[in-house]
Please model this.
Amino acid sequence: MKKTITFLSLFISALGIAQEPCSTGRYSSDVYPAVTLTSNVVYGQNLNYAGTNKILKLDFYEPTGDTATVRPLILWIHGGSFLGGSKTDADMVALSQSFAKKGYACASIDYRTGFFPIDSANSVKAVMRAVQDARAALRFFYKDRADGANSYKIDTNNIFIGGSSAGAITALHLTYLDRTCEINGYVPIGNLTTLGGLEGNSGNPCYSSKVNGVINLCGALASYGWLEAGNLPLCSMHGTDDGTVKYNRGVVNPGVPLMYLDGSRMLHEQAEAVGVQSNFYTFYGAGHVPYLGGSATNVAYMDTTVNFVRDYLIDRLGCTNPILQAANIPAQTATLYSFTTCSGNVPVDFCVGAGLNESTAEINLKVFPNPSTNDMNIVWSEETEMVIEVFDFSGRNLFSSKIYGNSFQLERNGLNNGMYLLKISNKAGKTSTQSIIFN
Model:
């Protein structure tokens, strides 16, 4: 199923009308004076850290009066230390409006925030939840085009992801954390499975979440070594005096020390070492997200940010336009620590179609009805001893039973409305996981 849908989406993209050429001034200048905002578009849902179902929404920005049927999309992710923030934060609004005026479509997303206790282990889970939600938002736009609706008129060959602070951390992890051995050193595979895998279960399963570029505004990555030869080019901007997300390498500290991350300076050093294009701009003497705020200084920083990101994007689109904001010389020395690149490993590729992880399932499993308002039937191909477990997406085991046979009736037993993870495993070590929904 996955291969068919992926091919179909690519085939439709190839047949789509080519986006308006750069020669019109589109993408490089404000060719549209006004922007149309569609607020609170639902793109998915999932359980937050407390086990409560969260409806996931985005705000969609597009040029008013635009007649183009295929447009590049920038998916923006807000900051807030994974504890708060909103798709309507001032920097997200300003960036979305600025690039919509240039002819881009923009989506500013809300995602699941919050974690407790506030410590390193739980902050990592919060990052993964944010990545999963961002992937669901990307899949939302692929699905819209592949299904023929084309409501948002997106060129799925040119979808970019970017963010500010925690949003940039999310965008970087979505782009460069993509292999099993990398993940196992960051979050144990068992925990990741419980959370729903890299793709997650936040909606629009089995569509692509591929991007064509990443915009890192004051963000960082857990390990610079995840950026490898052949990876996507990146655009980074960061202040040398950033005390929250360090410019070089250090502990992310939004008031509470959380985790060591490699900042933009480290990522630029690695990109140059492995031959990946890195557009890097340093805000000398600036602190965290200096473009956020209403002062003249903040506005000037925002203008610089828009111009530098604009230059990166038009290059990715194949446009030839004058550079508005040239890269400057990085500050500080970035010392790359010892890192062993994964070998003999395949990229992680989770496809959760109707809940079934088709790419990794080893047990022929059927669950029906799913979604359900009451009980569910679980059926597998041969009579054997099975362990059946149900988890919420904070990792809590809500149900566990060992049975012998080839079927089982899972009783709801007071579970709240929402999505859960069903795991079934046999004595031979084969395992299958599937998302299930009660409503």
